[in-house]
Amino acid sequence: MGAVALPFVRPLLVRARRTQAVPAGPPLADAATLPPHDPHRATWPGGEVTSGGVTLHVRETPGHGDTPAVYVHGLSGSATNWTDLAGLLATRAPGTAVDLPGFGLSRPLASRDYSPAGHADALLCFLAGRGRPVHLLGNSFGGAVALTVAARRPELVRTLTLVSPAMPDLRPDPRRVSDWKLLVAMLPLVGRRARSELAAMDPRTRAEQIVRLCFGDPAIAPEHRVAEAAAELAVRARLAWAHEAAERTGKAMVAGWLRGESLWSVAARVQAPTLVVWGERDRLVAPRLAARTAAALQRSRLLVLRGVGHVAQIEAPEAVARAVAGMWDAVEAGTWEEPG
User: Fold this and answer.
1) Coiled coil where (predicted)?
2) What is the count of structural domains for the chain?
3) Is 145 left (phi over 0), alpha (psi -120 to 50) or beta?
């Protein structure tokens, strides 16, 4: 069985463990049941919200549905990474896109704990304070955080969507060579010089470099989204904690990998129906991990998108929305467990 095919999406079979088959593709919602995609949609309004003793800056998407959606960005990302997808899913769920502590416009926690476990603790408390289960979606580092929350507090997570989650992988990948500076900057000891050089870049240049690293086809990145990213980087450069949060979070994540801390065992404990989405051209988290990640989860389906990079929710929001909405509909109908 392979990932589902769309007109611009082809199945990609990625070898999992020898004894594991590639999980089935997800059911897809009819595109007519989703609102039209507005590529020029402005970012959703934001503000600070305190829940469960944790204060985060969030962006709220008004919508309809009994189960709200919560969106979690990746390393050095923010709530604005979900603008398009949250809009497409608003007819099924109101959305809350969070800025993790120290990222976006969220202030750091008093503990200054930027470890993956620290971020997961903060999100877990925030969700528990709201007192209702959610559809939880995470990209990259945010996917790893969401995975941990779902494993630790299953009653809080109705469904889980992981977009290129930051699963541990220390094997070299030749595709990353051209983007070595951003990658080296994440390393705990040797990345200091690369981090200094990145910090010295003007916001527009840095935004363009991030697009080149994260998009499968950087040429399709909308100009207004690049400009938004540059403006956000300029604002963050003036926040006293921004550099500390990005550096210490990246270092803590890689250090955990080096210590052998494994998300694979965490994934095995997740009970929620889970959609795994991966871009075939992901340069940050290797697509070879896609099938293994889905196979490690008990109730998962896998979607691999041709020509897409690390941020599928930005690069191919309509394809991702159809898969996510299809999962939500199938779970509601009790058909998620049926063979693909």
Assistant:
1) none
2) 1
3) alpha
